[in-house]
Amino acid sequence: MRYSLLSLLANAVSGHKAWKPQWRDAAPQSAYDVVIVGGGGHGLATAYYLAKEHGITNVAVLEKGWIGGGNVGRNTTIIRSNYLLHGNIPLYELSMQLWEKLEQDLNYNAMISQRGVLNLFHSDGQRDAYARRGNAMRIHGVDAELLDREGVRKLYPFLNFDAARFPIQGGLLQRRGGTARHDAVAWGYARGASDRGVDIVQNCEVTGFTIADGRVTGVRTSRGEIRARKVAIAVAGSSSRVAAMASFRLPIESHVLQAFVSEGLKPIIPGVITFGAGHFYISQSDKGGLVFGGDIDGYNSYAQRGNLPCVEDVCEGGMALMPAIGRARVLRSWAGLVDMSMDGSPIIDRAPVDGLFVNAGWCYGGFKATPGSGFVFAHLIARDAPHPAATRFRLDRFRTGNIIDEKGQGAQPNLH
Question: pLDDT of 43-89, one tens digit each?
């Protein structure tokens, strides 16, 4: 069913009883050309672009839970391409360009809102760093504006300018950035892939790989063995555990990243704001809830729950930036598993096992990269060669020294 005004009116007349499922809940077949392990945003986007861009439709996406139940539904919905280094900017800008036409492409309302992303700075050093980042963005054709204090005040007069411990001096604004509805992105890609013949298999956990003569020949799952010519891994925080099943190690650590939602409020925050004097970022959802988060919990974990010291730290950052939200009640919090690479940048490459491909190490950047990640990963799988926007994300860069250290803070995931 194609969504349109006419289909909405027709279903309204019929009492909304004729809507069809958004995708086929398929049973696994015995063999596929490509098996994608992980039914999150990146795995589903990869399947969609394999079918749409490369005509490869004999594909299965295996999800151990349900579609939208993993990291793709456990984030703060921000999309942006305001990166600094040459290795990262092309991929995230490709992703931003795909975001801008995604709803028309998928015929699905992903609630994409380009309301702007503003990164605040609070010192001369931060101003110089953001000026450098903005210049790098503009060299690559990405929009960037460096605002002074009054420019920020004009956009967000409710911020704490006058009595702040860390006074706001200005900010770097990307007007094309914004937010998207996280689970709708997963549903839209699942629907688009399914419509092109891809099997979306839920409640199907991969328990191992079948490997013969150094080449992967399939996967073992909780629903039986499945043969495959190629296998792709896109499982975010579980990347290390899944890679271990194929007897290789990844240079990543899994950490918990919490997010929070407040009670519904009248519109107050028109865009996305990040606090430069602490790790805090905030936006407001269409339902009125303040959506915010901060730093990782700081210890290795596979648990999708957080700890109270991090909750306190995030709320302190919010109060320092916006004292007006102090009386808002936090309704709920949740946590996702982020796979922190040693240089803060992703890995999109062939694995040491022939026929096996890996997409991991997204750190904080996983959701915003969803379309671009799927696009370039599909290119790698289909053509056995990296996409021009993803040539730097090699697995062996940590051995050769060609790292992409976006933060410039060394190979410590806790500092990213």
Answer: 999 999 999 999 999 999 999 999 999 999 999 999 999 999 999 99
The residue among 212, 229, 189, 231 whose CA lies nearest residue 221 is: 231
Distance CA 346, CA 359 (A): 7
Interatomic CA distance for residues 129 and 135, integer angstroms: 10
- Between the alpha carbon of residue 176 and those of residues 92, 96, 240, 367, 368, the distances in Å are 12, 8, 34, 16, 13
If 0-12 CB within 10 Å is exposed, 13-18 middle and 19+ buried, where does residue 264 land?
A: middle
Give the global pTM.
Answer: 0.95
Provide, for the chain, the percentages of residues in helix, strand and coil under a 3-state DSSP scheme, each rounded to the nearest 5. 30, 25, 40
Contacting residues for 134 by C-beta, under 8 A, at least 6 apart = 144, 145, 146, 172
Which 8-state DSSP code applies to residue 355?
T
Residue 309, classified by CB atoms within 10 Å of its CB into exposed (0-12), middle (13-18) or buried (19+), is: exposed
Give the span between the Cα atoms of 152 and 126, in whole angstroms.
15
Give the whole-angstrom CA distance, residue 380 versus residue 393: 12
Mode of pairing for the β-strands spanning 178-179 and 199-201: unpaired
The per-residue pLDDT for range 79-109, each reduced to its tens digit, is 999 999 999 999 999 999 999 999 999 999 9
Q: What is the per-residue burial (b if ≥16 Cβ within 10 Å, else e) of 125-149?
A: ebbebbeebbebbeeeebbbebbee
Are the C-beta atoms of 199 and 29 separated by less than 8 Å?
yes
